[in-house]
């Protein structure tokens, strides 16, 4: 069953916006995978500070980005395909996924608000120790020192 007029415009607008949503998910997924598997980023995250490692918030953040990117790509695909095929089942599944995503975003916001002090404390403690170690390290590469110096000056 084809659509006409204004409904056809809405169909293609839904497709375009979901395609943009799908692309954004792909970009987020790509950046998160790059952050997780890039050797320079991995060296920063696996920075050994005596007997301590980077706090889990860094790892959790990267894994959340990977999951968010994959879910965004899936939901964007459902929206694109459902809009083009004019499938009520796919569009219903798309809507259900959007409602679930909204609920997850609200839950994540509440979790972040409740744990903001601990997260800030972990990040500050890790940063302070990494900065002190970078200042004392003679054998560290200039790139590593430049990254730490940039973080220190901008944060």
From TrEMBL:
It is found in: Cell membrane. This is CD81 protein. PANTHER family: CD81 ANTIGEN, TETRASPANIN. It is a multi-pass membrane protein. Its main location: membrane. It comes from Steatornis caripensis (Oilbird). It comes from the Eukaryota. The chain crosses the membrane at residues 12-35, 56-84, 90-114. Keywords: Cell membrane, Disulfide bond, Membrane, Transmembrane, Transmembrane helix. Coiled coil: none annotated. Pfam families: Tetraspanin. One of its GO terms (cellular component) is plasma membrane. Belongs to the tetraspanin (TM4SF) family.
